[in-house]
Structure formats: C-alpha cells, structure tokens
Backbone:
C-alpha cells in the first residue's frame, strides 16, 4: 500500500470516529503497516494540520487518537451548540475524582477519610457519568467495594493516561500555605517542620 | 449597626478549616488551635442561626479541635510519656489537612483540564448508519421510561377523583388482544391516549407487560427514547397452533 493511501485511510478513520481510535484498531484495519509506521503517519498528519492552520487538530486522548477542533474556535462552536460545555463538574465531584484517580483502587471510607464528608451522592453521580466505575471488591474484612476511574475519565479531561497528572509529592505546602514559587520549595524541604509528613497514608 | 453576612459555602469541615487558615494567614503546620477553634465554633453557630443543616462531620471536627485544645493546655504527663513519644496533639489533624489540600489542588488542575477539553469539540454524536428501519427490542427500562412519560403527560386534576376499580388487567389484556387482531402494529403511547385516569393507565401498562410475558406481543423501538411499538408475535401464534 502506498504511503499516501495509508495516510488517507487513517485520516478518514479519524474523521469518522466518534471516540479516540486506538493504534491497534487502526492497525487491524490496515492489515499491513506496523505500529511504528502508523504512528509516524499520524504525527505527520498532525503536523500538517498544525501547519496548514486547519480548524482541526489530531490529539492523543485516553491512549488513542482523535480529531478535535482547534480550541480557539470554541466561542463560535459554543454559539452553535448552546448546551455544549455548559455543564461543568462541581467542586466536590472534582475533589472526589482527584482522590480516586490517585488512590485507586479506593474504597468509599478511604475517600471519605480524605474529604472529611460523606461521598455517597457524589460517587453515584460520578458513576452515572461513567467517570468512575466499580472495580470489584477488596479481599479484606467486609469485602468493601473498590472504585477506579474509567477510560471516559481520561477522555473527559483530555488526558492520554493517568501518568499525565502531576505527582502528589510535587505539592508541598509551608508557611502561609498556598502555591509557593519554585525557589521556595527547596527551602521547605530542608526544614521540614515537625509533623509535616505529608505523604502519610490515611487508612 | 447593620449586619452584612457573607457566608461562604463549605462542602465539609476540612474545607472550612483550610479557609480559616488561609483567611488568618496561618502556617498550616503551626495552627493556633485556640483561635481557629473559636472561629470554627462561630461559623457553626452562624450555620445554626441560618437554619442550615449542620452535617455530623462538622461536629466531629469540632470535637477534635476541642480535644486538641484541651490536650495542649494540659501539662505533659512526665511519668507516662517518654520524650520521643511526645508528639504535637495537632499532628494528626495537620496531616489530614495537608493531604486534603493536595487533592483540592489536583481538583483545581482537573477543572482547568476540563475547561481546556471543553474547548475542543469532537464528533460526539454517533451518526446513524441507516436511519429509519433499525429496530431493536425495547427493554423493560425503556418501557418504564415510556410509562413514566405517559403518567407525566396526564393532567394533574385527573388524579383527584376517587373512582371505583373499573379497570382490571384481565380486561385490558382482553381488549389489547382484540385491538391487535384489527391493527397488528400499535404505538404504545396511543394505547394511553384515551385513558380516563391513572388506574386505567397502570392497568393498560400491566396488561402490556403480561402480554410480553405470555409472548403474545413483542415491543420494538427504532430509536432510543422514541415511541415504542407493540407488534403481535406471529411466530408464537403459529407455535401454539
């Protein structure tokens, strides 16, 4: 198969798909080029989109590839689809998602221990929205249900994988709390205050 | 003197504590427990006055604060405590606050990502392969959804009459079978059109369920949330004969 043809097929598939396409899916359709070739073609396509100042972009989301519109066009598209982007997740939902994303598999009491409030309602909404799912049960006393994030979670936040989230250890707070400038973070490590073992686990 | 109450809405007690720490520009690792406890209590009182429901979790942290405060007032018991065991009574609470704060930061990052992502539009409306004639068997949930829709559409005042049980499921099953002989395909919603009251709607609905159970009819839908069609199950009829 000619390279231009491969490129056209991939572009057409990305254009038509309503969800991120995995490399494996593209590969099984093309029946020939290996993963590396396909990856190369996709990056070439993505570069072309950028260079031509096209309205579209190729983005890696949730481990797959998807055609998305250029973010600068959002104001016009929002006018067209009045409901699009209107519903945002609430603060409690985002907090709960953050905890699950890092602590998964996590049980409800573990999430509640961190947030300090009951999370029944929030958890239900997140499951309904398919951002969180039940992974199973933990083989411990009471066999509690364990929760984790979904593929949809990555898609929703435009993440390629969970590794793209910042490391928890990167957050360090010291005097007068709030975000510290980089140069102060180092100082803080030298004089870790008593009782400031922030990496301890809540059990 | 005029009062101006600006009440921040706190999701939980830890939220409130972080707010107080920030407001007072306090070092999170060196919380002046007496001051914070006092302010925390003031806030709880405010919530009580405004008749807000004070969640039990607020009380738990209130008790924790008072416990820490009293512990800090007491001189350390020299007999019981070895020097290395002597810990700051605030330690546990601080650890929780710091941990919680990290996740609040992450939540903020997620919110930014959400905003960025919402600016990128994708083809998220699945295109229909061949619209029109695609049917799939409607599930029980589709039926219940349709049923609640019918109930919602009935004018309210209808429900206020007190009526004798004039509609029975048996009768409705009978009626339905007769109607199906005349018209083999019927819309589910049309069945309810002439219903006089809620009881009749329910009887009709139960009759539909009963006929599905007896395999006399099949219900199909050509699109999610669209009308459901009732079709006589010819196959079954033949089998019986």
Residues:
């Amino acid at each position: 198969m000619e390279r231009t043809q491969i490129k056209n097929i991939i572009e057409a598939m990305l254009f038509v798909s309503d969800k991120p396409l995995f490399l494996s899916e593209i590969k099984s359709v093309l029946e020939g080029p290996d993963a590396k070739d396909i990856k190369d073609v996709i990056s070439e396509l993505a570069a072309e989109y950028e260079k031509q100042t096209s309205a579209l972009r190729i983005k890696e989301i949730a481990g797959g590839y998807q055609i998305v519109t250029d973010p600068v066009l959002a104001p016009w598209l929002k006018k067209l689809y009045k409901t699009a982007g209107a519903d945002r997740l609430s603060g409690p939902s985002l907090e709960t998602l953050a905890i699950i994303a890092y602590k998964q598999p996590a049980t409800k009491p573990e999430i509640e221990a961190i947030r300090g409030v009951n999370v029944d309602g929030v958890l239900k909404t997140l499951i309904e929205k398919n951002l969180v799912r039940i992974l199973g049960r933990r083989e411990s006393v009471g066999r509690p249900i364990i929760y984790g994030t979904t593929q949809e979670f990555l898609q929703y936040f435009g993440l390629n994988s969970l590794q793209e989230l910042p490391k928890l250890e990167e957050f360090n707070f010291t005097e007068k709390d709030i975000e510290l400038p980089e140069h102060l973070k180092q100082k803080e490590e030298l004089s870790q205050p008593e009782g400031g073992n922030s990496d301890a686990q809540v059990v | 003197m005029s009062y101006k109450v600006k009440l921040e809405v706190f999701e939980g007690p830890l939220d409130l504590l972080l707010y107080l720490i920030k407001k007072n520009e306090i070092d999170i690792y060196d919380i002046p427990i007496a001051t914070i406890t006092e302010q925390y209590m003031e806030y709880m009182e405010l919530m009580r006055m405004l008749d807000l429901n004070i969640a039990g979790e607020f009380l738990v942290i209130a008790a924790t604060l008072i416990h820490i405060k009293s512990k800090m007032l007491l001189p350390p018991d020299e007999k019981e405590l070895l020097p290395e065991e002597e810990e700051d009574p605030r330690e546990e609470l601080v650890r929780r606050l710091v941990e919680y704060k990290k996740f609040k930061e992450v939540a903020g990052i997620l919110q930014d990502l959400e905003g960025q992502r919402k600016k990128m539009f994708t083809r998220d409306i699945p295109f229909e392969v061949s619209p029109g004639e695609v049917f799939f068997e409607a599930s029980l949930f589709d039926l219940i959804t349709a049923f609640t829709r019918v109930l919602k559409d009935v004018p309210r005042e209808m429900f206020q009459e007190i009526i004798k049980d004039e509609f029975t499921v048996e009768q409705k099953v009978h009626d339905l079978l007769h109607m199906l002989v005349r018209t083999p395909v019927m819309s589910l919603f049309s069945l309810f059109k002439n219903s006089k009251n809620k009881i009749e709607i329910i009887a009709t609905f139960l009759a539909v369920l009963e006929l599905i159970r007896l395999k006399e009819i099949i219900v199909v839908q050509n699109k999610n949330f669209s009308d459901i069609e009732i079709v006589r199950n010819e196959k079954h009829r033949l089998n019986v004969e």
